[in-house]
Write a structure and sequence with these properties.
It is a single chain. Helices cover about 20% and strands about 20% of the residues. With about 425 residues, it is of the alpha/beta class. The chain has 3 domains: about 160 residues, GTP1/OBG domain (Spo0b-associated Gtp-binding Protein, Chain: A), CATH 2.70.210; about 170 residues, P-loop containing nucleotide triphosphate hydrolases (Rossmann fold), CATH 3.40.50; about 70 residues, GMP Synthetase, Chain A, domain 3, CATH 3.30.300.350. The strands form 4 sheets. Strands 10-11-9-12-13-14 form a 6-stranded mixed sheet, sandwiched between helices. A 5-stranded mixed sheet has the order 3-1-8-5-6, with no helix packed on it. Its main location: cytoplasm. It is found in: Cytoplasm. Monomer.
Length: about 425
C-alpha cells in the first residue's frame, strides 16, 4: 500500500520535578536541604530511513509521545533524562505544522534529522534555592511541560526523471523495459494507481532514478482523476519525459493531449511547467503513416520543445535513444533542493512565560487579577502556606515587574491581588 500523506500528534517528554528533601542523619544536626533536580524530558526527532518508501507506518499509529524526565530525589540525586523518541520517515518527507500550515523541515538527504518537539526542562530541587538567609527552603521547581503539536507528513518522491502523460500512453511499459520495476500494465486507463520508481542502468551512461506518475489528466490541478494526489511527486524531478500516444487508436489527438497536460502543469506550478521536457511519441509501431509523426514533431517544435523522439516501448524501438538523451541532459542540469519560499517556512516561537493583569470590581473593592503561563508555573513551584516559600513568591513577582506594573495601574493599599485561587492584600 502506497501512503504519501499522514497527520500525526507528537509530544515531547515533560521535565521531572525537583525534589524537596532535607538531609537527616545521625551526628549531622544541620544537614540542610538536599533535594535533587528533575531530569529533562525526551525530544521527538524525525530521522530519514533510506529503506522506507511510504508513510504506511503512520496510517494506524497517530500518537507519538516521548519519555518524561524522572523526578529528583533526596541526597541531591538528579532524575534521569527521558529517552528521545526517534521517528523514522522516508527520504523526501516534508514536515508541516498543521496549525499554521508552514513547512518545518524538508528531509531529502540521507542522515537528515529534525527535532520537532523539544523536551521540557527538569525542575530545580530545593538544594538549589538555599541561601545565607534562606537556609531551609521548603519548595522546589516543577518540571517544564513538553511541547506538543499536530504535524502533517507529505512524501515527495526523489526521482531524477518523471514520466508524464495521459493514462494508457505507455509510461509504465517504458519504466518496465528500462528498469527492474514491475508496474502493473494493462490495456485500460488508470492501470497505475501509485507512483512507481525504478533505477535506469544502461551500459555507457550514468544511472538515474525514473518515476512513473499516474493519474494526470485534464483538470488534474483542480482534483480531477488522481493527478492532484500525485503531481507533488514530480516537484523534485529535474527532467520530465512527456509520453504521448501517437498511434491514434483511441481516437485521441497527440498534440492536444500534450497541450492539456502542460496546461495542468502550469496551473499546479509554473516551475514544473518550465522544467526541461523530452517529448516522446510512443506506440510508433502502430502508425499507418510516417507523416503523422513528422507533423506532430513540427507542431511541438513550434511550441519551443526541440527534444522530440519517436518510440515504441513495446518493441524497444527508439527507447535507448530516449534514455541516452535523458542521461545527457541530466548531466547538464544541476541537482537542487526543493524550493520553499520564506513565507511558507515555519519559524518556531521562543517559549516565554507571560502574564496579563485585568481589574475587576467586587463589593466596592478593586481586584487585580494576574493570569497567564507565568502565574501557572509560579504557583506550581511554591507553597504559599510556608513562610520561606511565600517570601520567594513575592521576590519573583517583584523581579518579574508585576508589582511595578500594578503601581502603574493605580493599585492602592488594601486592594486585592489574585493569582488563580490565591489572593493577598496589597500593602505599599
Amino acid at each position: 500500500m502506497f501512503i504519501d500523506i499522514a497527520k500525526i500528534f507528537v509530544k515531547s517528554g515533560d521535565g521531572g520535578h525537583g525534589s524537596v528533601s532535607f538531609r537527616r542523619e545521625k551526628y549531622v544536626p544541620l544537614g540542610g536541604p538536599d533535594g535533587g533536580d528533575g531530569g529533562r524530558g525526551g525530544d521527538v526527532i524525525f530521522v530519514v530511513d533510506t529503506s522506507m518508501t511510504t508513510l504506511l507506518d503512520f496510517k494506524y499509529t497517530k500518537k507519538f509521545i516521548a519519555e518524561k524526565g524522572v523526578n529528583g530525589a533526596g541526597s541531591k540525586c538528579y532524575g534521569k533524562d527521558g529517552d528521545d523518541l526517534i521517528i523514522k520517515v522516508p527520504m523526501g518527507t516534508i514536515i508541516r505544522d498543521i496549525e499554521t500550515e508552514k513547512v518545518m523541515a524538508d528531509l531529502s538527504h540521507p542522515g537528515d534529522k529534525y527535532v520537532v518537539c523539544r523536551g521540557g526542562k527538569g525542575g530545580k530541587g530545593n538544594a538549589k534555592f538555599a541561601t545565607a538567609t534562606r537556609q531551609a527552603p521548603n519548595f522546589a521547581e516543577p518540571g517544564m511541560p513538553g511541547e506538543e503539536r499536530w504535524v502533517g507528513l507529505e512524501l515527495k518522491l526523489l526521482a531524477d526523471v518523471g514520466l508524464l502523460g495521459f493514462p494508457n500512453v505507455g509510461k509504465s511499459t517504458l519504466l518496465s523495459v528500462v528498469t527492474k520495476a514491475k508496474p502493473k500494465i494493462a490495456n485500460y486507463h488508470f492501470t497505475t494507481l501509485k507512483p512507481n520508481l525504478g533505477v535506469v542502468s544502461v551500459p555507457g551512461i550514468q544511472s538515474f532514478v525514473m518515476a512513473d506518475i499516474p493519474g494526470i489528466i485534464e483538470g488534474a490541478a483542480e482534483g480531477v482523476g488522481l493527478g492532484l494526489d500525485f503531481l507533488r511527486h514530480i516537484e523534485r524531478t529535474r527532467l520530465l519525459i512527456h509520453v504521448v500516444d501517437i498511434s491514434g487508436v483511441e481516437g485521441r489527438d497527440a498534440v492536444e493531449d500534450f497541450i492539456k497536460i502542460n496546461e495542468e502543469l502550469n496551473k499546479y506550478s509554473v516551475k514544473l511547467w518550465d522544467r526541461p521536457q523530452i517529448v516522446v511519441a510512443n506506440k510508433a509501431d502502430m502508425l499507418y503513416d510516417e507523416d503523422i509523426f513528422e507533423n506532430f514533431k513540427k507542431k511541438i517544435n513550434e511550441m519551443g520543445y526541440d527534444k522530440v523522439f519517436k518510440m515504441s516501448a513495446a518493441t524497444y524501438d527508439g527507447v535507448e535513444t530516449v534514455i541516452k538523451e535523458a542521461a545527457r541532459m541530466l548531466n547538464e542540469i544541476p541537482i537542487t533542493d526543493l524550493e520553499i519560499s520564506p513565507e511558507d517556512m515555519y519559524i518556531p516561537e521562543e517559549k516565554k512565560f507571560t502574564y496579563t493583569i485585568r481589574i475587576e470590581e467586587e463589593d466596592e473593592l478593586k481586584v487585580y487579577v494576574v493570569e497567564g503561563t507565568f502565574v501557572d508555573r509560579l504557583l506550581t513551584a511554591v507553597n504559599v502556606n510556608e513562610p520561606d516559600s511565600l517570601k520567594y513568591f513575592h521576590k519573583v513577582l517583584r523581579n518579574k515587574g508585576v508589582f511595578d506594573e500594578l503601581r502603574e495601574m493605580g493599585i492602592q493599599d488594601g486592594d486585592i491581588v489574585r493569582l488563580r485561587d490565591f489572593e493577598f492584600e496589597y500593602l505599599l
